[in-house]
Design a protein that fits this description.
By secondary structure, the protein is of the alpha+beta class. The chain has helices at residues 2-20, 87-98, 139-145, 177-181, 202-215; strands at 49-54, 62-65, 71-74, 78-81, 107-113, 118-123, 129-132, 158-162, 169-173, 195-198, 225-226, 232-233. 24% of the residues lie in helices and 23% in strands. The longest helix has 19 residues, at 2-20.
Length: 234
């Protein structure tokens, strides 16, 4: 019986310590994203504006917008898929398409403007919601946009849901202070409409349990103290 009471007292004390913690968000200072030759090339998305310059037939030069179906409409070749292609991949597709109509087609593909680039940030952050990416950012910087981590956040197990190339993929990212000192090796650049979810820490789960099933459930308010030597008072 005494062992059970001791365990209960320890859990209760732990929950009280957690509830006494500050409820203000811990706002991270977002580091700059480092770009390199290994950074994936940008892929077009509906709403992007692209200039296609055809040197071998200037009258075919157009500035087009990627439609909701992911295609651009061009003379001679018709509707061509552009969404999820890089500028180089779209260039190769157009050269192949125009080859049936032009002799040695020469052209360039130049991005002119980009559609809205949003990410979703939820879980244990100060302001969950949808945020516009100001540039290429990673999960840590997305959390900064959302006001930072709450004290209840489990920063070592942040989840990133990505739908790149039409496939859903969930990646676990370590954004803990220890990972910060190593430069966040797991944090990769986010893609449009990625979801960043910060789960609740184990200590906050214990605190929530104590709040819902112990403090709120009991009909009376009480204080509890247990001395491991065997003396108990309440």
């Amino acid at each position: 019986m005494r062992d059970a009471i001791a365990v209960f007292a320890a859990v209760l004390a732990l929950s009280l310590v957690a509830s006494a913690a500050s409820q203000e968000a811990q706002v991270p200072s977002a580091p700059a994203v480092v770009y390199s030759d290994a950074t994936p090339a940008y892929r077009f998305y509906p709403g992007d504006e692209i200039e296609i310059t055809v040197f071998s037939a200037p009258e075919l030069t157009r500035t087009v917008t990627v439609g909701p179906d992911g295609r651009v409409a061009l003379p001679l070749v018709g509707a061509v898929r552009a969404a999820d292609l890089t500028a180089e991949e779209l260039h190769d597709a157009l050269v192949s398409g125009y080859a049936a109509h032009l002799r040695m087609p020469e052209l360039t593909v130049t991005p002119r403007s980009y559609a809205s680039r949003q990410v979703f940030v939820g879980g244990e952050v100060a302001r969950p919601g949808i945020y516009e990416m100001p540039a290429q950012i990673d999960a840590f910087q997305a959390v900064a946009l959302a006001g930072g981590f709450l004290p209840s956040a489990r920063r070592s197990d942040v989840l990133v849901l990505s739908r790149a190339s039409g496939e859903a993929r969930v990646t676990e990212v370590d954004l803990s202070p220890r990972a910060m000192r190593r430069g966040f090796p797991d944090a990769q650049p986010l893609q449009r409409y990625d979801v960043v979810y910060v789960p609740r820490s184990h200590i906050s789960q214990v605190n929530l349990f104590m709040q819902q099933y112990v403090r709120d459930a009991l009909p009376v308010q009480f204080s509890f103290y247990y001395d491991l030597r065997g003396d108990r008072s309440n």
